[in-house]
TrEMBL record:
Name of the protein this chain belongs to: Ribosome biogenesis regulatory protein
Chain intervals with Basic residues compositional bias: 302-313, 338-347
Highest taxon in the source lineage: Eukaryota
Primary location group: nucleus
Pfam families in alphabetical order: RRS1 (PF04939)
Family membership noted in the UniProt record: Belongs to the RRS1 family.
Gene that encodes the chain: rrs1
Keyword annotations from UniProtKB, A to Z: Nucleus, Ribosome biogenesis
Amino acid sequence: MAACSVEELLVRAAQDEAEKLKSISVQKELELHFDIGNLLACDTNRVEVRDFREQKKEDFLRSLARDNTQLLINEIWKRPTERLEEAIVTKLPEPITALPREKPAPKPRAPTKWEEFAKLKGIQKKKKTNLVWDETAKDWKRRWGYKRAGDDTKEWLIEVPETADPHEDQFAKRSKAKTERVAKNEFNRLKNIARAQKVKLPGVGLTPTPQQSKEDLARAASVARTSTASAGRFQDRLPKEKPLKNTGKKRKFEPLIGNFSTEKQKQLELLKLMDGKRPKLNVTKAVNKQMREEDREEAAAKYKKRAGKKGRKGSMPGKAKGKTAKGGKSGGKAVVGGKRRGKTGKR
């Protein structure tokens, strides 16, 4: 390998330095379209196919991106600048290009019940400061939350009201009231979310609802019946009242440790049933089935007999009632040989 001369090394170093320090002025046939608010530059110049083929693809694209970025930076620095601490900044204008969104714009949040009431009554929200003066601690404290001003849950002494039970724990009562307030606020928050999402709220317990179904009314009646001292054992049922579903007797399971003789007997009966060649005959079921078949056959025979009698009577329409034989008696006119005669009697 031939050694490089000093002149070649200097020329190469100069080329590398010039490559690093390219001029900030870039010449383009057509000016770029800039949207400074979005830091966007659109290049509409024609790409030379010869340059693209002669150079490497990556080098050509890197050079093109560098030139366009330089033009965008030059356009940014044309705007008025100011010094902020140790940096020079410029204020970007509003964007003019509408960029597409991946997802649709979020819908406005549905107002809560309080917001609807405040709008109806004209109540305007007033901004309050986060800190208030606490007279007891003689210091500024938060208005809400942890270590707030006027926190009565930290008091070591509570005066018992005159109308309250003297043996009632006032600290536990105050703590319970706070827990109920927190639960109520959380419940209202969840209801607002469900109402905004248009989700049907389920009934809580047995509270009255605008439209109650049969199941709800039956469940309410069942709860009212079993709320007596005897758990509804001696409570009379309403007329045409059906028992509530899924409220029967619970299944009872044998204990894990108990009488092993009973368990042994059950297992032997099960093995005997499985080992038997002939199926087990249920005598009661077989007798009932035989009796039903006999009753069915007897009813069918009676029906056929009754139908035969009706058919014979209907096949002789000219036959009169009573005895119609010759010389017989009849309550009306007798018909003999097709001739009509008067009432029979003595001549």
